[in-house]
Amino acid sequence: MDIYLPIANLSVNALVIIGLGGLVGLLSGMFGVGGGFLTTPLLIFYGIPPTVAAASASTQVTGASVSGVFAHLQRKGVDFHMGGVMVAGGVLGSLIGAGIFSLLQASGQIDTVILVLYVLMLGGVGGLMLKEALQAVGAVRRGTPVAAKKRRHHPLVAALPLRWRFYRSGLYISPLAPLILGVLTGILTMLLGVGGGFIMVPAMLYLLGMGTQVVVGTSLFQILFVTMAATMVHATTTKAVDIVLAALLLIGSVIGAQLGARLARRVKPEYLRLALAAVVLVVAFRLALGLGWRPDEIYTVIAE
């Protein structure tokens, strides 16, 4: 069933796009990640222009984050004070990212930059995840569980001025730390279409020293508003958001997330992390291969 994407300016099989959204939703439900960092590469593999893929993926992440935020609100797992500071930084980062996006788009280098950033980001994150997962699997087989790391904020965070109390997180740190973290996430959201949860959660745990009971909910709260802001900025500046594409992805991701949550209950978490690391590294390798592999046709002529 072919459908025309007005912004991407091409026809796609709607069932394939829904299937891609379903696959990302399945991973989201199984591993507890937003999945935005896989949506854009999968769309690029299918032939969607990287600019449209990145802009439309942020729209999908916005919709997918809503249910997660409400679920954590019921468990009182959201630090609104901390989340508000991060949202402010994220909105500022979105505006900065929009300027960078426009400059790269004007120079004709935006597609290459998106691909290179994804290779570096997924390769680095996937490598760290693989190392941790292998240690966890080895410890389980030996019967010696890995000791949990202490949660405390980084010395650089402790050195920042103007400390505030974040009661829900149990922290007394400078608001500049979560503000800067929010800015960086906003820039990544604009350039890559990711929610940033796979970077935000470790940073909130190991840099800010937040408690595990509020990390995921606060991260989703920040992601919801920052991706919403990024979508609006994209729609008004870069004009790269394809709402038809985003809607098809959302349909698939909602269905996939339900299936993934059920599958996650039947598999040990150590093996889930190992599988996710493998998926991330495979995607990074495929993107790197696309950057270095010479295409059959170097030039393409389009008649207008």
From TrEMBL:
Residue ranges crossing the lipid bilayer per the database entry:
12-33, 53-73, 85-106, 112-130, 171-199, 205-228, 240-259, 271-289
Family the entry assigns: Belongs to the 4-toluene sulfonate uptake permease (TSUP) (TC 2.A.102) family.
Spell out the InterPro entries in the cross-references: TM_pro_TauE-like, TSUP/Inactive_protease-like
One GO CC annotation: plasma membrane
Keyword set includes tRNA-binding: no
Where in or outside the cell? Cell membrane; Membrane
Q: tRNA processing: present as a keyword of the record? A: no
Q: Which UniProt keywords apply?
A: Cell membrane, Membrane, Transmembrane, Transmembrane helix
**Source organism:** Sphingomonas gilva
Protein name per the record: Probable membrane transporter protein
Membrane topology of this protein: Multi-pass membrane protein
One Pfam annotation reads TauE
